[in-house]
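Hey, can you fold this one?
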Amino acid sequence: MRITRTASTPLVLHDPYFSIWSPCDRLYDGDTQHWCGERQQIRGYITVDETVYCFMGDREGHPVMEQVWVDISAVSTTYHFENGRASLTVCFTSPLLPDDPALLSRPCTYIDFWVDRKMDADVHIELWVSSDLVRRKKDELIGGSYRIRDFGYAYMGRAASRPLCHSGDSLTIDWGFVYLASKEERTALSYDRAGGRIGASVLMGRSAKTAGLVIAYDDQVSINYFGQWRKSYWTEKYGNILEAIGASLADRKEVLERCAVLELEIQQRSEGLGGTEYAFLCNLSYRQAIAAHKLITDEDGQIIFLSKENDSNGCIGTVDVSYPSVPLFLLYNTEYVKGMLRPVFRFARCAVWEYGFAPHDVGRYPYAVGQVCALNKKEEGLGYNLDSGNIPPFYYMYPGGCGIYDLADQMPVEECGNMLIMTAAVCETDGCADFAAEYYEELETWAGYLLEHGGDPKEQLCTDDFAGHLSHNVNLAAKAVLGIEAFSRIAGLLGKTAAASQYHEEAVRMARGWEARADAGDHYSLAFDRPDSWSLKYNLVWDLFFGSGLFSEDVFRKESDYYMRRINRYGVPLDCRREYTKSDWTLWCAAMAPERAQSERLMACVADFVRETPDRVPFSDWYDTVSGHYCHFKARSVQGGLFMPILIEERRKS
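Sure. Predicted structure:
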């Protein structure tokens, strides 16, 4: 759909390292960037007869072919440029199709060109990809250009490439190789060692109207998964990157047709439910949510789908980052949700994790080697600095009783509720609990923890602790209630009727107590001991998903009405303590709104933020509702949560 502006425009999105954006209104107003803000320069020029015009990247003194419009769909971004002599359309398509894991993980983006001459003219297109994509310093490069079978390619990488040589948050990759490829004989591909770049020169002549390239990245090794060096999922199908590139060129027509079907489906579903503002949000968030993960398999061939906490702390497989993201994946393929959960269950069974509640994470990207959150001061003093880029210790190998974690900084109710709800949501969507059966013991333990500690949580961390720790957190208690109901659902699907009945009755009892203690008249409070307070109760949305009816309709009606009275220019604050909010939780509240007008107003506020924010960063989920400034967090997977209204609507129909 055509857009007027967005904070940052997605171009090439595949995983946390191969993620290129334009932070400008017009593609030629500045160089492209990695999501973290580091320059990853791609420059494009079109020559019409003998005049060179810039259409992409810093124009370097060249005149521009004026940008007329930009269109963002779920898996593609299209720009259109014109002058008095010709017009050029450029489309970037990252075919992240959820029904095809090999294709979703294949690190190949199509760059397609369409030229329309307004007079007789000779046209030539150039695209140059900088070594910014493969190194962070002026290290020595290697590269070349060749022809293999029926396509040509150029490649480039750091000569002293050391896979998985660091871990961290706002870091770009400096191992592996970037490629440009084409099937067309009239496209010359080259490696410019002196200039530190690879390029494609497309001779359109006086008659050709279309041309296409593929940009690809081979990271060689993707993740250290509990001591195993694992490659990306696409290597299960393709022997090497050249096979993957060749396949992307060969199946281009079919893949683009499948992309068009997916894009139309997302456009129609979102627009039908929430109008053009909601469609804009879904189109903008789809690639971002997927590309904040890396898809691999474990030693048994099972899918493992690992998120990275972009612009947060760099953790990998974070439970409270997976939780908000799952609506998108529940809609399109539950295997990805299972792939988020498996690493957490695996770490929870390690001797070092000796607690009766769920972990927070499984490491620091790209090392899934054990939780790094909430290390005690003694362990931090042993030399591991979370901000240094160092590789974390392999905590999954530590023995029990070593005491490396600080209990005060754990998130027990939060993560137990998250794991139970996500697991139950997978089982409900699949219509069976085969996935949960293997982990029943852990799930039962975590449900027991919620029974004991979740009804009125003591002071502990939660995912929304930005304004400080909070005791008696009403929204966190709601998650505990739904977590217990989630376990009841799992038990029921496994034929454990007595346990299912017992835990459901406990959830009913706790929900009734919740309503009585949190009631603040025309809304429900932030904390049980603060009747003058308020907050977003987004966790209640799972009551609608499960159709469990634990909370009365009055709760949803009063909360939604109250949000409308607290709304600011860019949305409703998370709670009464600050003016900032989260986009994912806002859309969960939109999914709960009894009236469409309320839902659409919440959606429109988030859409206004991403269009009007002065901060040119990839779609942030944490921002100020008054100023529109982003607080922190960008390009995160949690934006998959924006699909919650569609998920709830689908559940209502089923």
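The mean pLDDT is 95. Let me know if you want another pass with a different chain boundary.
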